[in-house]
Amino acid sequence: MSICQDLGLNFQQRMGANISQLERDIGSEQFPPNEHYFGLVNFGNTCYSNSVLQALYFCRPFREKVLEYKAKNKRTKETLLTCLADLFYSIATQKKKVGSIAPKKFIARLRKEKEEFDNYMQQDAHEFLNFLINHINEIILAERNQSTLKVQKTPGSGDNGTNVTCNGTLPHSTEPTWVHEIFQGTLTSETRCLNCETVSSKDEHFFDLQKPCAMTTSSNATTAAATRRRRNG
């Protein structure tokens, strides 16, 4: 056997060790390149968190921004965002295409950040999503303001060499973050006066838009509705 053949065989053997049984059964060629499908280990009813994290990981713009944050972030302070970035990086750099991973550090940080999640009870996934998105946005804004504050620290600008605004407050960034760019929408509400018919409008920003769903009273009603649709179709 030649050296090239020997190296090729060793490479295939090493790669084979990194392929799961599921990949062998399905076929590695069926998986999109650069994608990894990893389940998250449940730590006592943390499925509310796992389901949201899975959805966010496969929201490509969000995943790319989180991984970009990890690559650029030089801070050593642990936050929920750094833990999320570490989790996403761990999934994205796995050798296998499928498997499972334990988000221990993220869950531990979550329980420190929010008392409501510091237990082993089931939680609402929608409430967790709202908390996570808003909390990440707050972290980004706080770090941005801190960076701006360091830049604006010039001798003689204030008591401690810090620039202040005309009303004596520290400057804060109002520029939208990438969280706004991905998730924020604008809801316009219009009000019409019944007397003069003047219409006034108001814009409100939101991260989530709730839509009411019609609730059926029983399984019989659901079955009857489905039957009517089939008959009409």
What does the secondary structure layout of this molecule look like, with pairings?
Layout: H1 3-17, H2 21-26, E1 37-40, H3 47-57, H4 60-72, H5 80-92, E2 98-101, H6 104-113, H7 125-151, H8 178-183, E3 185-192, E4 199-206, H9 219-232
Parallel strand pairs: 1-2
Antiparallel strand pairs: 3-4
What descriptive keywords fit this protein?
disordered N terminus, EC 3.4.19.12, about 10% strand, about 230 residues, mainly alpha, Cathepsin B, Chain A, 9 helices, two-stranded antiparallel sheet
Beta-strand level of the residues, as a percent range?
Answer: 5-15%
Low-confidence stretches: 1-16, 156-171
Number of helical stretches of at least 4 residues: 9
Total strand segments: 4
Helices and strands, in N-to-C order?
A: HHEHHHEHHHEEH
Textual characterization of the structure:
It is globular, with a radius of gyration of 26 Å. The longest helix is centred in the middle third of the chain and has 27 residues. The chain is mostly helical. It has a domain of 154 residues: Alpha-Beta Complex (Cathepsin B, Chain A). Strand 3 and strand 4 form a beta hairpin. Strands 1-2 form a two-stranded parallel ribbon. A two-stranded antiparallel ribbon has the order 3-4. This is ubiquitinyl hydrolase 1. Pfam families: UCH. It catalyses: Thiol-dependent hydrolysis of ester, thioester, amide, peptide and isopeptide bonds formed by the C-terminal Gly of ubiquitin (a 76-residue protein attached to proteins as an intracellular targeting signal). One of its GO terms (molecular function) is cysteine-type deubiquitinase activity.
